[in-house]
Amino acid sequence: QVQVEESGGGLVQPGGSLRLTCVASGLDFSESTIGWFRQAPGKEREFVAAANLNGAYTAYGDAVKGRFTISKDNAKNTGYLQMNNLKSEDTGVYLCAVKRAYGLSRNPAWYPDWGQGTQVTVSS
Question: Which residues contact 30 (CB under 8 A, 6 or more apart)?
Answer without folding.
Answer: 53, 54, 74
